Amino acid sequence: MSARSPRLGLAALALLLVAIPAVGVQSRDGGKKVDKEKICQEAEARYRELFGKPSKEGPDVVVLMYKYTFCPSVLEVKQGAKIRWVNVDKRTSHSVWFKEAGRPESDRVFSEEHVPMTADLAPGSYPYICGPHNERQGMRGTLTIVP
Ligand SMILES: [Cu+2]
Predict the structure, then answer these.
(1) 114, 51, 91, 38: CA torsion to nearest 10
(2) How far is CA 69 from the centre of its chain?
(3) Tell me: the pLDDT tens digits for 88-106?
(4) pLDDT in tens, 52-79
(5) Dihedrals phi, psi of 124, to nearest 5 degrees
(6) Residue 1: pLDDT band with limits 50, 70, 90
(7) Fewest C-beta in 10 Å: which of 57, 71, 82, 110?
């Protein structure tokens, strides 16, 4: 009996060591994805509430900024397209910054305000960030411009 329990204990410990990181990684990835979807659904509902129509109805291509998330975070547009990043948060201001492309940070816009941009960069994929929320909250997006 006394020899069995420590072995069981060791086995349980080994299982925990194997299981904990696996579960941790899985829920971190899976959880984030689900959260983002939910956040973007909420963001769209907020947009409709504020502007009385779906974000797809323009006038420009719309990206929502809500709860430290760009919705959608990955977007493809034609070169020359007009895009507006609309803040549908209640209290938080956001910016749009194509830092790697050498552009200056946009103004920080508050609820219902937007950052306008014409997709005038050369065709390609451009990561961008929200100035105040990219490091801690990971508020980032990618814009792909096609000819
Ligand atoms: Cu932000």
Answers:
(1) -100
(2) 3
(3) 999 999 999 999 999 999 9
(4) 999 999 889 999 999 999 999 999 999 9
(5) 155, -175
(6) very low
(7) 57
What whole-number distance in Å separates Cα of residue 137 and Cα of residue 90? 17
Q: What is the pLDDT of residue 18?
A: 43
Calculate how far, in angstroms, residue 118's C-alpha sits from the geometric centre of ligand 1. Answer: 20
Smallest CA-to-CA distance from 33 within 85, 69, 87, 82 is with 69
CATH class entry, domain 37-146: mainly beta
CA of 78 to the centre of ligand 1 (A): 25
Give domain limits for the chain.
37-146
Contact 140, 130 (CB under 8 A): yes
81 has pLDDT over 50:
yes
User: Ligand 1 centre from 133 Cα, in Å?
Assistant: 5
pLDDT for position 59: 84
How far away, in angstroms, is 69 Cα from ligand 1 center? Answer: 7
Q: No. of H helices and E strands in the chain?
A: 1, 7
What's the gap in Å between 138 CA and the centre of ligand 1? 9
pTM: 0.78
